[in-house]
Amino acid sequence: MTKYYYSCELDKNLIEKSFNNVALLIFGKNNSRRIEAFEDYFEKRVSQVNVYPQGTVTEYLNNTTPGRCRPDKDGNIIIEMLGYKGARNDQLSWIKHEGTHEFCHSFVDLLHEVLSNKSARITNDGFLYENSITKNGILHKNCSGKIIEIDSKTGELVGLYGKMFNETMMDIISSMAINCFDSNGRVTSVDDIIRLNFNDWGNETTGYSIFTSITRLTIAAFSNNGFINYQNAVDKGLSIFDGTTTMANGDTYKINDFLYGIVFDQLHIEEEFDKFMGSGSYKIFCGYLDSLFTISLSEQKLPSSEVKRVMNILPDFLNKKINYYRQNGILDLKGADKIVGNFNQIWNSMQQEYGSYFTEQDINEIARRAGII
Ligand SMILES: [Zn+2]
Fold first, then answer.
1. Radius of gyration of the chain (CA)
2. How far is the CA of 242 from the centre of ligand 1 (A)?
3. How many Å lie between the centroid of ligand 1 and the Cα of residue 15?
4. What is each CA distance from 324 to 123, 124, 273, 332, 333, in whole angstroms?
5. How far is the CA of 319 from the centre of ligand 1 (A)?
6. Distance of CA 90 from the midpoint of ligand 1 (Å)
7. CA 27 vs CA 31, 108, 259, 282: distances in Å
8. Sheet containing 146-151: which strands, arranged edge to edge?
9. How far is CA 203 from CA 150, 175, 263, 264, 273, in A?
10. What residues are paired with 151 via a beta bridge?
11. What's the CA gap between 286 and 161, in Å, rounded?
């Protein structure tokens, strides 16, 4: 059973609302049975939720780290955050955002365990079982919303990647959830958050905000249905994360492989990316993004040349995927054009946002790599 600690009624509400915001968005408000089932699991695996008054400094919290989701000595989770007690009026919506963000971490930390089907299946690279895969003697596992690599023989830690995507998606999901379920009069829709720059969401901005356009571009690249109206789906009480769509050849795919993977199974994203970009590509891409994240977080500015690299890699992935989908009848031309059009809209806006301008020659180079010209 989870132990809850808070010092005022408002902070008790912060806990309940943060849980509900995330649960309603991730599972869909019609899926109350799944929410209840997850709540039971949460109570087993989260040992403590501590909400401290503003100004509290602990080993893990201070005014620059207002929340933390971390393992306890038994491998269960402790959620800690600064709450409403002692807060100024201008901090209220930020506290709500941070609370939702930390709860979102706890959901993502646990969901791959809940959904683990325990049955082994064989892929081109090896065995995939219990949310882990072994490639060349290295075990890849979902780990707190990231991917961890362990040497199967020695048990040694080889790598851990996906932090940038994990953190930015916690902010993106929190903004969607607060807009949908915890604000008076919604200004922006779920689709707006995917489509528009963070300054136009009407939500709190954080140190992570400057990276969110890269993550939005990634979401667009992993779409399997460009016509989906995400807000309609949420309003109907459906999950936009593990919802499925029927492809032109009749197969059932996730609506969006990235949205599904970031919440339920990070290895799914790696599998999709590597399928088109080559084995090991996702690890390299994430490793690069994670170091960019660490370096640029304190400066709050992304070098335009680095963003340009990302803006070269993601079109390659999307073009390869779309070519494959078209050749195999998975998408018709209209479906393919819509996904590419949505992607291009974000890609174009990033030139100005980051000062990462592409010349005609640069663009022709992308087309050449895709075999278009
Ligand atoms: Zn975080």
1. 21
2. 22
3. 16
4. 18, 17, 13, 12, 12
5. 32
6. 21
7. 6, 12, 13, 27
8. 121-123, 126-129, 132-135, 138-143, 146-151, 157-161
9. 38, 6, 21, 25, 30
10. 138
11. 6
Question: In Å, what is the CA distance from 174 to each residue of 133, 251, 314, 362?
Answer: 30, 31, 25, 36
Tell me the C-alpha distance between 99 and 108, whole Å: 15
Give pLDDT tens digits along the chain (373 positions). Answer: 999 999 999 999 999 999 999 999 999 999 998 899 899 999 999 999 999 999 999 999 988 889 999 999 988 999 999 999 999 999 999 999 999 999 999 999 998 887 655 444 444 444 444 567 888 888 888 888 999 998 888 889 999 999 999 999 999 999 999 999 998 876 799 999 999 999 999 888 999 999 999 999 999 999 999 999 999 999 999 999 999 999 999 999 999 999 999 999 999 999 999 999 999 999 999 999 999 999 999 999 999 999 999 999 999 999 999 999 999 999 999 999 999 999 999 999 999 999 999 999 999 999 999 987 7
- Is the backbone of residue 144 left (phi > 0), alpha (psi -120 to 50) or beta? left
Q: How far is the CA of 138 from the centre of ligand 1 (A)?
A: 27
Asked whether the CA dihedral 260, 264, 270, 276 is positive or negative, the reply is negative
Distance 176 CA to ligand 1 centre (A): 16
Element (DSSP H or E) covering residue 264:
helix 257-264
Helix axes 304-327, 333-354, angle to 10 degrees: 180
In the chain the first and final C-alpha atoms are separated, in Å, by 60
Could you tell me the distance, in angstroms and rounded to a whole number, from the CA of residue 99 to the centre of ligand 1?
10
What is the token pair recorded at 364?
Answer: 């022709």
Burial status of residue 277 (CB atoms within 10 A of its CB: 0-12, 13-18, 19 or more): middle
Reported as type and span, the H/E element at residue 67 is strand 67-71
Are 50 and 68 within 8 A, CB to CB? no
Q: Which residues pair with 256 in a beta bridge?
A: 223
- Distance from residue 337's CA to the centre of ligand 1 (Å): 35
